[in-house]
Amino acid sequence: MDWYDVDDVLYDGNEQEILRLTCPDCGGSIAFAYYADTASFEVTCKRCGHFSRDSGAPRPNCAVLLGDTATIGVTGAGESPKL
Ligand SMILES: [Zn+2]
């Protein structure tokens, strides 16, 4: 998986697929933010700092399902995200 695949899942994936995402470079958790007023979408890896921004983007599925800003791929409650 690379960042193109991550973007695909963020835009078009279902909730289960989105919540499984982690950074393809380092396995860290991913934070996203969608700004409806500017139609821009930012994705950041919380560990390695990878950053990408799309503008003119339609609201991605991840923002519809989880809210306009969220962090996913967080390891919590002794459970590791798979894939
Ligand atoms: Zn990373």
What is the general shape? globular
Fraction of residues in H or I helices: 25-40%
Strand fraction equals 25-35%
Q: Span from first to last CA?
A: 9 Å
Q: How much is the radius of gyration in Å?
A: 12 Å
Number of helical elements: 3
Which distinct ligands sit in these coordinates? zinc ion
Oligomer: single chain
Q: What's the arrangement of strands in the largest beta sheet?
A: 3-2-1-4
Element pattern in H and E: HHEEEHE
Extract low-pLDDT stretches. none
Mean pLDDT score: 91
Structural class: alpha+beta
Description of the structure:
With 83 residues, the chain is an alpha+beta fold. It has one domain. Helices cover 25% and strands 25% of the residues. It has a 4-stranded antiparallel sheet with strand order 3-2-1-4. A hairpin with a 5-residue loop joins strand 2 (40-45) and strand 3. It is globular, with a radius of gyration of 12 Å. The mean pLDDT is 91. Residues 23, 25-26, 28, 45, 47-48, 50 line the site of zinc ion.
Throw out a few tags for this protein.
83 residues; alpha+beta; 4 strands
